[in-house]
Design goal:
Layout: E1 6-13, H1 21-34, E2 40-42, H2 60-82, E3 87-95, E4 98-107, E5 110-115, E6 132-136, E7 139-145, H3 152-159, E8 165-169, H4 178-192, E9 195-199, E10 211-213, E11 219-222, E12 228-235, H5 237-245
Parallel strand pairs: 1-2, 2-3, 7-8, 8-9
Antiparallel strand pairs: 1-12, 3-4, 4-5, 6-7, 9-10, 10-11
Helix pairs in contact: 1-2
């Protein structure tokens, strides 16, 4: 039997409760249990342990990670495996005195992780060193985290590995206009001819509006600001059909694009006089 070409994904737009970690994790488990028949369940950035900027005083989350937060992850992984679900969830990972902003994929076969490579200037995480896609029962799924999505190179590099779906898990604040984020995601979808899944956090500080964009850039489904689970059916053959119709990849000329790997833009040349 081949891999399924039609998938049901569940985007979980939820908030974090630092006052009751046990209750919060139990609520996340309830969501997994209720949606375990979906092919993929996607949670927002840092939703398992919380975002350091939400914790007071500064650094409180990091100190708690050293004490016992890491055990929460292993317990959650075990639950996902027991109910035979497939989950992408945002969390903090500690390695010695280094802390990483991580997207973790869990299914009954194991655990895989991606560490955020483009750390926002307001964060103190150690940046990851490579992009990543997760191997799932229905093929590869690309992933990036929040500010990663601001870099068009991230989307294209993932798309060039052949993934038909790329998930962006986020904690975008309400101060960053939703229309800007959606324009970015819509562009990522149509320029790379992939499905884009956007799972953002809800709550007073965050903007919600999780969404799914098709490979032609169409908005397929979206949420408001409230907590919700957004279920969407994806036909992966749509990626194949669109790529045959609009043949971008066979017509690429990579040697012309070498300037995009320069760390700094060149100094503009002065205008010619004459």
């Amino acid at each position: 039997m081949g891999r399924p070409v039609k998938l049901t994904v569940a985007l979980v737009q939820t908030s974090y409760n630092s006052a009751d970690l046990a209750g919060h994790v139990a609520r996340l488990k309830d969501v997994v249990r209720e949606n375990r028949e979906c092919d993929l369940i996607v949670f927002p950035e840092l939703i398992l342990h919380g975002h350091p900027s939400d914790e007071r005083p500064a650094g409180f989350l990091y100190r708690r990670m050293k004490a016992w937060h890491s055990s929460v992850s292993e317990e959650f992984y075990g639950f996902v495996k027991d109910v035979d679900a497939r989950v992408i969830i945002g969390e903090v990972r500690r390695r010695g005195e280094r802390f990483y902003n991580v997207a973790t994929y869990v299914d009954r076969h194991g655990v895989d992780r991606y560490a955020k490579t483009h750390v926002h200037w307001t964060e103190q995480f150690v940046p990851g060193r490579r992009l990543k896609s997760f191997q799932t029962p229905f093929g590869k799924v690309g992933v990036n985290i929040c500010f990663d999505g601001a870099f068009s190179e991230v989307w294209r590099a993932l798309a060039l590995t052949g993934v038909p779906v790329i998930a962006n898990i986020s904690a975008v604040p309400a101060t960053f206009p939703v229309q800007y984020m959606w324009r970015r995601l819509r562009g990522a979808a149509i320029f790379n001819e992939v499905f884009v899944l956007y799972a953002n956090r809800a709550g007073d500080f965050f903007s919600g509006h999780s969404a799914v964009f098709g490979p032609r850039g169409d908005l397929l489904a979206s949420a408001g600001m409230e907590e919700t689970v957004l279920r969407v059916r994806l036909d992966l053959e749509e990626v194949t059909r669109w790529r045959r119709e609009e043949t971008i990849y066979p017509n690429r000329r990579p040697l012309l694009y070498r300037e995009i790997v320069r760390r700094r833009p060149p100094t503009p040349s002065p205008p010619e006089m004459g």
